Amino acid sequence: xxxxxxxxxxxxxxxxxxxxxxxxxxxxxxxxxxxxxxxxxxxxxxxxxxxxxxxxxxxxxxxxxxxxxxxxxxxxxxxxxxxxxxxxxxxxxxxxxxxxxxxxxxxxxxxxxxxxxxxxxxxxxxxxxxxxxxxxxxxxxxxxxxxxxxxxxxxxxxxxxxxxxxxxxxxxxxxxxxxxxxxxxxxxxxxxxxxxxxxxxxxxxxxxxxxxxxxxxxxxxxxxxxxxxxxxxxxxx
Length: 237
Ligand SMILES: C[S@@+](CC[C@H](N)C(=O)[O-])C[C@H]1O[C@@H](n2cnc3c(N)ncnc32)[C@H](O)[C@@H]1O
Hints:
45% of the residues lie in helices and 22% in strands. It has helices spanning 10-21, 37-49, 68-75, 87-92, 128-138, 153-165, 177-180, 182-193, 195-201, 206-225, and strands at residues 58-62, 79-84, 100-102, 114-120, 139-152, 169-175, 228-236. Helix 5 (128-138) runs parallel beside helix 6 (153-165) and helix 8 packs antiparallel against helix 10 (206-225). The termini are far apart.
């Protein structure tokens, strides 16, 4: 199964990157786009790596994308598990021989506990309360939750409330809006540039792609208006 069958709009991001850059490694924004999108995306993952406890530790990655972070974590000596609801991503990662579970994070069995639960641009798909409730059940007592994602000011308020409810503490918070937001402009630009090929390759309707581009333009404006931010959180008990 190939990445063109990833769920929409992840297939658009992957294919737009392939058309523009020849291949894709990740489905997240990059830090410092002037270094090129591939290096910029790796910069983001390199930052995450600095927030991990020493290997070996048990890491759960929520939302595996192309499995690139998973492969790097295994290479660095971590015990890696990835969870994703999309069977196509699991099939795409088959040759990487990662330990993967097909499930939504919210429905994951609670029989195993982890030192780290990592959300790199996957927290935005999960309501904050459900995310923290499940993380609470899956985290070892000394474990940490790492979240790197775009977030609206409204969601930040909700997150603060549930952090307290589930007895978490925000031990680290950093704002990467300036570093990450240009990635969205780049993404919009390459989707417009390769629009005709994207419609054909992914068998999308023109309306579906136009609506998605419209939503991305609104988000881009929200970054400029500062109602959208790109933040890192580390939570512990
Ligand atoms: C923007 S992609 C990021 C992928 C990867 N973390 C990366 O940085 O390249 C979002 C990921 O979250 C996954 N996802 C969406 N909803 C999810 C859920 N409820 N539980 C687990 N993963 C989910 C998607 O399938 C996808 O793998």
